[in-house]
């Protein structure tokens, strides 16, 4: 009788216990190597490695996934997931809570060598058609020029698609992170035909962000502490170097 009651109580305890907490759901872009991308369906790249390690250090699991950028942002707006590798701008600051900086991404303007032009900033792109990644912000000045209609954009899901269009002469320029642009040019075999204009368009710090509705301020504070420790002990640099070398 005692054993039966013990078994019954144990069964009830298991049935009514709170389920194990799943990891924090965080999405990264699926097509922006070497920073963030999908490799055989799994998240990969610098941001996946950095965020996962920081969460490990604070004793939490990061449920990382790679997805189209537009879907990642939609989930962020709905407070369904965080997003790694996102830029901050005036509009986003009103909606999201941001971590400390993950990385400084230098945005470069790539053009065909045969059609290179002088570049001094956003105004140099007016009247041109520029390849961008769907859902990205390239800074307040560029975004404002696009909204005003002085710069035309064609959106794709990846840098590789943009460089393919550039090689075919369908667009005038491509905006890409310097390191990601090199990867995409090599993948498309257009390195001899395309050049990067100088100076860069911008240098944008990237972050981990959650919707303010999600109430992740305390979590981001702990994440920032771990990120700072990673910078001090050298693991941040080692992780970044290893990801860039792939």
Please state the second-level CATH architecture of the largest domain.
3-Layer(aba) Sandwich
Helix fraction bin: 40-55%
* SSE sequence, one letter per element: HEEEEHEHEHEEEHEHEHEEHH
Gyration radius, to the nearest Å?
Answer: 22 Å
Question: Tally the helices: what do you get?
Answer: 9
Number of domains: 2
Low-confidence stretches: 1-21
Q: Would you tell me the structural class of the helices and strands? A: alpha/beta
Shape: globular
Percent of residues in beta strands? 25-35%
The CATH topology assignment of the largest domain is D-Maltodextrin-Binding Protein, domain 2
Q: State mean pLDDT (0 to 100 scale).
A: 90
Report on the biggest sheet: 10 strands, mixed
Distance between the termini: 63 Å
CATH superfamily of the largest domain: Periplasmic binding protein-like II
Q: Supply the CATH class of the largest domain.
A: Alpha Beta
Overall strand count: 13
Signal peptide: 1-22
Domain Solute-binding protein family 3/N-terminal: 25-246
Protein name: Amino acid ABC transporter substrate-binding protein
Keywords: Signal
Structure characterization notes:
- The chain has 246 residues and is an alpha/beta fold.
- The chain has two domains: 23-103 and 204-245, Periplasmic binding protein-like II (D-Maltodextrin-Binding Protein, domain 2, 3-Layer(aba) Sandwich), CATH 3.40.190.10; 105-203, 3-Layer(aba) Sandwich (D-Maltodextrin-Binding Protein, domain 2), CATH 3.40.190.
- 40% of the residues lie in helices and 28% in strands.
- The strands form two sheets. Strands 1, 5, 6, 7, 8, 9, 10, 11, 12 and 13 form a ten-stranded mixed beta sheet that branches.
């Amino acid at each position: 009788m005692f054993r039966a009651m013990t078994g019954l109580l144990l069964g009830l305890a298991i049935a009514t216990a709170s389920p194990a907490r799943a990891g924090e759901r965080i999405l990264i872009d699926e097509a922006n190597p070497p920073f963030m991308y999908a490799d055989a369906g799994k998240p990969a790249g610098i941001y996946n490695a950095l965020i996962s390690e920081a969460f490990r250090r604070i004793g939490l699991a990061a449920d990382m996934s790679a997805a189209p950028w537009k879907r990642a942002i939609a989930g962020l707006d709905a407070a369904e997931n965080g997003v790694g590798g996102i830029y901050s701008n005036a509009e986003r600051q009103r909606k999201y809570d941001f971590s400390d900086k993950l990385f400084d991404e230098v945005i470069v303007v790539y053009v065909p060598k045969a059609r290179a032009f002088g570049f001094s900033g956003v105004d140099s792109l007016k009247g041109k058609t520029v390849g961008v990644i769907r859902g990205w912000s390239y800074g307040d000045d560029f975004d404002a020029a696009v909204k005003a209609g002085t710069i035309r954009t064609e959106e794709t899901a990846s840098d590789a698609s943009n460089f393919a269009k550039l090689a075919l002469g369908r667009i005038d320029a491509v905006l890409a992170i310097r390191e990601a642009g090199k990867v995409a040019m090599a993948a498309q075999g257009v390195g001899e035909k395309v050049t990067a204009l100088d100076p860069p368009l911008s240098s944008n710090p990237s972050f981990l962000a959650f919707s303010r509705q999600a109430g992740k301020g305390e979590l981001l504070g702990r994440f920032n502490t771990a990120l700072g420790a990673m910078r001090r002990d050298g693991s941040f640099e080692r992780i970044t170097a290893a990801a860039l070398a792939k």
